[in-house]
Amino acid sequence: MNILKLSTKNLLRNKLTTFLNIILVAFGVAILSILFLASTQIGNKLERNARDIDLVVGAKGSPLQLILSSIYHIDFPTGNIPAKDALELMQNPMVKRAVPLALGDNYEGHRIVGTDSGFVSLYDLKLGNGKFWAKDLEATIGSTVAAESKLKIGDKFFGAHGLSDASDEHKQHAYTVSGILQPQGNVTDNLILTNIGSVYKMHEPEHDENEKHHEEINNKEITSILIQYRSPMSVVIFPRMVNQSTNMQAASPAMESARLFSLIGVGIETLKWFAILIMAISALSVFISLYNAMKEKKYDLAVMRCLGASKPKLFFLVMIEGLLITVSGAILGLLLGHLALQIIGFYQESSQARLTGLYFVADELYLIIAGLVIGVVASIIPALQTYRVDIARTLSKDK
Amino acid sequence: MISIQSITKKYNHGPTLTFPDWIIQDEEQWLLLGASGSGKSTLLNIISGLLKPDSGEIKINGTDIYSLPLKDMDRFRGQSIGIVFQKPHLIKSLDIFDNIALASSLAGLKINKSRVMTLLESLGLAEKRKNFPDELSQGQLQRVSIARALINNPSLLIADEPTSSLDDENAENVISILTEQAAGNHASLVIATHDKRVRNRVSKEYLL
Ligand SMILES: Nc1ncnc2c1ncn2[C@@H]1O[C@H](COP(=O)(O)OP(=O)(O)OP(=O)(O)O)[C@@H](O)[C@H]1O
Ligand SMILES: [Mg+2]
Predict the structure, then answer these.
(1) Does A257 reside within a domain?
(2) Least confident piece of the model among A3-17, A135-149, A260-274, A366-380
(3) Is A378 a member of any domain?
(4) Ligand 1 atom 10 nearest Cα
(5) Strands A110-115 and A248-251
(6) Is residue A258 in a domain?
(7) Is B148 a pocket residue for ligand 1 (Cβ < 6 Å)?
(8) Among residues 365-394 of chain A, which lie with CB inside 8 Å of chain B?
């Protein structure tokens, strides 16, 4: 019979206290692990999606909204810009690569993006199956879209107006799936790519439409342009030029993501301190439980000394009890954290930013270590008491 | 053989206790008698290596036990001295079998399951082996603590007031068990008591 078994039996004897303490530690760890996992996942996604894009140009409005809609495909676009102006900007010598986007439709919640072949090279897209879109009304779909909609090559589908719901379908034109992308690990997994012409076609008036509509089509519009600079020097001049001399606005993904993150950051920071507070309370609770148990355990410890146990052995006996609680609490907390995130991901609406619990970060190792440290801190004082138990006196006195 | 020579002990704020010299031969059975407060428990604690005397020497089979390093003394006590207290002091979280087996593993010895069972049987506790201490009576618990004291085949069995919290029948029983088991296991026996019921059962007396 080793001390581990003895500690376990002691803990099992006080099931309720043990359970409460484990749960306390687990809660603290679970909250922290959710924070770690969610913020790294969101951070990674933000970074991966904006990796090669220096600037987004679109209609005037909130720059954050422009970035969210054109890069992360979560918010609504700020409006449209005249294709003529866009083209002019795309030919600017400072621009190395410019990719136009025409948004506005969706299929079962997956956004349909009208663009050109520049999009393929910008995101370094690889085909899994079939070919890239070429003609009007051909579409290449992301891997998640394919998995969720069960669309196969050659299948036809109708786009719906708007960015998320399917109430208003464009029944007059059907898209044909020409290819399916390999999983890219970024937002393109959730997109349906086609050419800009297809998007225009969707919105072409039926023949009995009025004059005003005609005009809009003639002055064609797109939603935004994704831009790569030729040289980093343009960072300062180019956006200012766009914002001042045109009717469009330029927004930098790096700046807006950082701003977004600093907004979320306040919340994360608060939660983090809250979790640390819970962990501190759990340490205190484990300490109080062990300390109180020492009064009763004094006899057990004295008996064990009589039976030949050395002082260090009893010291470890008490330490291990504390450590068992906090380490199993930490492990349970990690499991809870991952489970919670998996459940959150399952119920999340926007598939673009979906979180998963099947993801591990190195920081979680620190949580286990934190569990160990809390165990040591909480049990060291009770454990040191084993050195002070006066065996002779404890046992010869009537209990 | 155990020899005790010119032992003295003074507690803080107490008188100095002096103890007459004493030699206990192998397998001898002794009563340690004295009024309350005369120092019976103190002497037993000194003999079992739990309380260092201020002066004097105590040798068990030739070893001066207080010259041993602390850890060795703990091990020595676990292996060669069995102690029975006034209260059984069993570990509540372990069942009867494990309580006895614990004494072996704490003394650094292998657990001998069949010896545990033989001891339990000879004390009439075989069917209680899976029970926990709070499911047994005082008399049964005291017998378990005797089994625990005997498990490692000690050369000395020490009992401090083993009967004072028991009724006549149980006290009678415990004394019989102590004397018989000590003899059967070839251990010397020292019982500290001021219980008159014990006086006529053991012939050798050491008076404080
Ligand atoms: N830990 C201690 N600190 C101070 N004084 C002590 C301590 N233990 C015992 N004493 C004192 O030492 C003397 C001897 O005590 P001891 O317990 O050895 O007596 P005893 O013969 O076993 O008594 P009893 O029959 O009541 O058990 C008593 O006067 C007691 O008050
Ligand atoms: Mg006493």
Answers:
(1) no
(2) A260-274
(3) yes
(4) B11
(5) unpaired
(6) no
(7) no
(8) 391-392
Report how far apart the first and last C-alpha atoms of chain B are (Å, whole number): 21
Domain CATH code at residue B127: 3.40.50.300
Distance CA A107, CA A157 (A): 8
Please state, in angstroms and rounded to a whole number, the distance separating the CA atoms of residues A250 and A227.
Answer: 10
Task: Determine which residue's CA is closest to atom 14 belonging to ligand 1.
Answer: B39
Residues A41 and A157 in one domain: no
* pLDDT tens track for A106-145: 898 899 999 999 999 999 999 998 999 998 889 999 998 9
Confidence of residue A210 (pLDDT cuts 50, 70, 90): very low
Whether B70 has its CB under 8 Å from any CB of chain A: the answer is yes
Residues A59, A36 share a domain? no
- ipTM value of the model? 0.88
Cα A177 from chain centroid? Answer: 30
Domain of residue B181, residue span: 2-207
Count: domains in chain B: 1
Find tokens 């376990």 and name the residue.
A8
Residue B120 C-alpha, separation from nearest chain A C-alpha, in angstroms:
18
* Cross-chain Cβ contact B75/A310 below 8 Å: yes
Q: Are residues A200 and A330 in the same domain?
A: no
Q: Is the CB of B49 under 6 A from ligand 1?
A: no
This prediction has a pTM of 0.74
Residues of A in contact with B90 (CB under 8 A): 303
How far is the alpha carbon of A270 from chain B, nearest alpha carbon, in Å? Answer: 42
Q: Shortest CB distance from A9 goes to which of B51, B74, B93?
A: B93
Q: In whole angstroms, how large is the CA radius of gyration of chain B?
A: 17
Judge if A290 and A174 occupy the same domain: no
Same domain, residue pair A191 and A237: yes
Range of the domain at A272: 3-46+264-398
Amino acid letter, A56: V
Note whether A217 and A205 are within 8 A (CB): yes
Convert the pLDDT of each residue in A145-174 to its tens digit: 999 899 999 999 988 887 766 666 777 788
A311–B102 C-beta distance less than 8 A:
no
